Amino acid sequence: MSTPLEHGAGLTGRGDAETRRRGDSREHGAGVSAAGGAGVSARPSESPDPVASLLEALPYLSRYVGKTVVVKVGGSVGDEGTVLEDLAWLRRVGVNPVVVHGGGALISHWLAQLGRETRFVEGRRYTDAETLDVVRMVLVGLVNNDLVAGLNALGVKAVGLSGVDGALLQARLRDERLGLVGDVVAVDLAPVEALLQAGYVVVVAPVGSGPGGQPLNINADSAAGALARALRAEKFILFTDVPGVLDRQGNLISQISVGQVRGLMESGVLRGGMIPKVEACVEALETVPRAHIIDGRVPHALLRELFTDQGVGTMIAHEG
Ligand SMILES: Nc1ncnc2c1ncn2[C@@H]1O[C@H](COP(=O)(O)OP(=O)(O)OP(=O)(O)O)[C@@H](O)[C@H]1O
Ligand SMILES: [Mg+2]
Q1: 107 lines ligand 1 (CB under 6 A)
Q2: Pairing of strands 207-209, 215-217
Q3: Is the CB of residue 269 below 6 angstroms from any atom belonging to ligand 1?
């Protein structure tokens, strides 16, 4: 399960990632591999043989074109590096990206501006009524709108929704210790499907519609997992700001089976914000073949994960 890679090796991590991806490729008949995994580089110096890079990418491309890929990004467009560019490329080549975003850091910033404290319980934010107002203003008003504007500026049309729109994410209260935090209990895909059909990139803010129409704060990873599962996405990818899931020594764990997740939780290896992320992967895997937690600081991490033999984080799948 754990690999001997040094901490930070996920930034290059080629040896292990290729082993992992070779297995992935064989299964789908995509056995063509180019040296260096440089297929997404725009710089010729990193791409000695462009045809080899193309041959590496094409089997993956043919797997994803026409399919839905759910991508969870953090709250800040800037912090996610090249993710908007990568999402725009996905749409241009005919993949249907559905984006779910967080916004944790910005919410904490605005709560602090208002003199309000933030408290987390097992990676989820305690949310009273006033905190929920700030959560909605930041997620729906700022972050969602910024992502949509960023994608539009790249020439792909995007539409933002919150989980309240069209009752996309229907939720119930999760736990009284958390206040107005929801768990998704039902997903109405009609608004997302209509927009995908019309060619839009869909960007979803993780606010759900609770009992009696009460909006509820939903952890973005959990919202993304529920959506990926409902959409039967071809792939579920979560960005984070670390190399992936790390073991106790800080080494990247490049692959986890669903069966290993409980042990990791119980041993305390998964803490804080990583808990809802891994739980979201497990939920998505009920219908999605593979889920990945990847390092958003790696340039073009999304294209690398989807279209090259390289992996840039932790893959979670049913088998070990
Ligand atoms: N075993 C682990 N491996 C890697 N990261 C871990 C682990 N346990 C806890 N973490 C923490 O989880 C954090 C990621 O979750 P976090 O909720 O902070 O960010 P996010 O979900 O990417 O952003 P947002 O909540 O705004 O959507 C990492 O920065 C790391 O500090
Ligand atoms: Mg989080």
Answers
A1: no
A2: antiparallel
A3: yes
Domain that holds residue 285: 9-36+50-317
Cα radius of gyration rounded to whole Å, the chain: 19
Instruction: Answer yes or no: is pLDDT of 164 > 80.
Output: yes
Tell me if 269 sits within 8 A of 247, measured CB to CB: yes
Q: Which residue has the higher pLDDT, 5 or 260?
A: 260
Residue 206 in contact with ligand 1 by CB distance below 6 A: no
Is the pLDDT assigned to residue 168 strictly greater than 80? yes
> What confidence tens digit (pLDDT) does each residue in 59-114 have?
999 999 999 999 999 866 555 579 999 999 999 999 999 999 999 899 999 999 99
CATH number at residue 132: 3.40.1160.10
Q: Does ligand 1 come within 6 angstroms of the Cβ of 102? A: yes
Q: Which ligand is nearest to the CA of 240?
A: 1
Domain count, the chain: 1
Task: Give the position, in ligand 1's atom list, of the atom nearest the Cα of 104.
Answer: 26
User: Domain for residue 45, yes or no?
Assistant: no
Q: Is 7 in the pocket of ligand 1 (CB under 6 A)?
A: no
> What is the SS3 assignment for 224?
helix
For atom 23 of ligand 1, the residue with the nearest CA is 74
List, as ranges, residues with CB under 5 A of the ion ligand 2: 273
Residues linked to residue 295 through DSSP beta bridges, in sequence order: 240
274 in contact with ligand 1, CB cutoff 6 A: yes
Kindly list the distances between the CA atom of residue 97 and the CA atoms of 91, 186, 215, 221, 301, in Å, as whole numbers in the listed order. 7, 21, 25, 16, 15
- Residue with the smallest CA separation from ligand 1 atom 14 is 273
Whether residue 1 lies inside any domain: the answer is no
Confidence label for 264 from pLDDT (cuts 50, 70 and 90): very high
Q: Is residue 44 part of a domain?
A: no
219 pLDDT tier (thresholds 50, 70, 90): very high
- Residue 2 inside a domain? The answer is no
CA 154 to CA 58: how far, in whole Å? 23
